[in-house]
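Q: For a teaching session next week I want to show students how multiple molecules come together into a single three-dimensional assembly. I've collected the sequence lines for a complex. Could you give me the predicted structure tokens for the whole thing so I can convert them for display?
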Amino acid sequence: MATTTWLESLNPAQRQAVDHGDGPLAVIAGAGTGKTKTLASRVARLVERGVPPERILLLTFTRRATHEMLTRASRLIGADIGGKVWGGTFHSVANRLLRTYGEALGLPPSFTVVDQDDSVDLFNLVRSEAGLGERGRRFPRKDTLASIYSRMVNAQEPLRQVLKRDFPWCAAEADAIAEVFGGYIERKRAQHLLDFDDLLLFWHAAATEPDLGPIIAERFEHVLVDEYQDTNAIQAEIVRAMRATNTNVMVVGDDAQAIYSFRAADPEHILRFPDQFEGTTLVVLEQNYRSTAPILAASNDVIAKARRRYSKELFTDRTEGQRPELVTCMTEQDQSDAVCDAVLAHREEGIELREQAVLFRTGHHSDLLEIELGRRNIPFVKYGGLKFLEAAHVKDLMALLRIADNPYDEPAWFRTLTMLEGVGPANARRVMAAVGVRPRAEGDGPSPILRLAEAAEDAPPLLHDELAGLAAALGDCAVEPAPPPSTQVERLAEFLTPIVARRYDSPDVRLGDLEALAAAASGFASRSRFITELVLDPAAHTGDLAQPPHLDDDFLTLSTVHSAKGGEWRAVHVIQAADGMFPSDMATRDADGVDEERRLFYVALTRAIDHLHVYFPMRYYHYRERRDDLHGYAPITRFLPPATQALFDQRQVGVVATEDNAPRPGLVTAAAAKVDAGISALLGG
DNA sequence: GGCATGTGTATTTTT
DNA sequence: TACACATGCC
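A: Of course. Below is the structure for the complete assembly, covering every listed component.
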């Protein structure tokens, strides 16, 4: 396509960003204002101007986003630059750079990247060995330790400050927490493990090193960062350090869509970007090309009530269109029925399933709907929630593979050993000590895998067979030259089969997953590439690895709002719009939390192109699994007060609010008082 | 006494 | 799903 043609399809603001010369550029891009198009065009324009693609660094939030932008850019200039541009998430780019430059920083050439689950496991090992797990002591649990640590690192804030503000109930234990962190760090180093935070920290360290930093920065003539409102302090500093040699940097984002503060992201970074880079050109994109005017009006009304935001008002030319719909349902089952009906009705009108999405606050909010979709044979894929890699049996296999790859990987050993029969935490520790995993054997003697076979000989009879079987399986994978990754996965799956059968229900499905894993491994050149890839870009769902959905398959998208970021669909169904679910009552402790939930709700609404439906189930059950009828009535989400509801068409499903069954506040209070008095009498009060 | 294993209960969002 | 806690084996 000739340059002039595609440049003309940009509006003046987009064009200003795309045509910007050198120097810092910040683009505040509202929802649906052509952010992806602008970034892709900018990449294309740079290449046209003669910047070699491999000297462009494009940082995005997901693999999917990178792929889409580079595909679009390639199409614009009529040449495939997808494999040349350095594109990816902060974490995957860090991994790539550190495989090259890490050794100069003292990193072992073949480190193992561990995901959050593994990092939590390692915290647990340190915590329990330090004797801090005793009963009665109010010491933070492993997940809490991991979040404190991660926040400290990502926000670059001193431990005590983090504790005081975000975890006040742990403040008294600051010294012990610092000690656990020390142990955690020491073990990661000894075992050649890098967690997600380390990837950023070491990249930052490399980029700020006086000798090495400029070499790395110089690799790139231009740096572009997407979703900048969701970067945290360490990422912002990395971007700064990467521009030590010039100031060619473009950041794009929308403070109204900042939804990752739990990961220490702070929209202040995009708002203060012009202070960081002197002479920044600021471009604001306000024309929305995605949604109809009625949908935009409702979305604008929701976000207008946020406390702090960069002032901008989205507008659209698409003045035609249906008003969004608010569907009040009596029960969650009514909601599931209503969603299925609406989805099928849209399909009748010619909107395919792939052009529709159901969005929700948390992974399990779609449980009941998934059952109904199954019953009606409506195919779907789910993003967010439990991922393929988080399924227990998949983690089991990955632990085995990781030992083969890095025989000093303690969390992998611990997981592997404790899945053997008769081995609990204590025995696992003994074995790890015997084979020299920890403390790491002096002078890198025989590999712990080899020593495991010897240890098996000395073990009591019951343990012997278990350990010998494990040693054999690992040994087959750790030989030189290494068998192909898929062969290794198959060998380990064989070892794992009886264990899966013994420990889990529906073993057939799980064994099928392991086969899928072996098939996926066959596409990789090496075992360590495969492991790293899976950790940094986990398959979104079980079917993802097994059978990438064919282009001609039609399926509905189910997604958490977080995972739906950047997406758009002709029809969007937002479910569970009840206060306590959306906003999640976990997040409503303070005003900042509520604000973030509001932005999240805004993100959900702004995904819609033509049709928007919001569903509010009135009645919720206290215990999902139980058969009893304990239920309560939830109020509608606080983000849809009456004034906002007026922008919606309203409809009711199920038996809603007749005179007989409507909750009557006075009656409810009186009944509760009566019940409480009865119980209090039973207690003798 | 130390340890593995069974049982009941509460669950946010992700690189 | 995974945790805390209880039970019961060696």
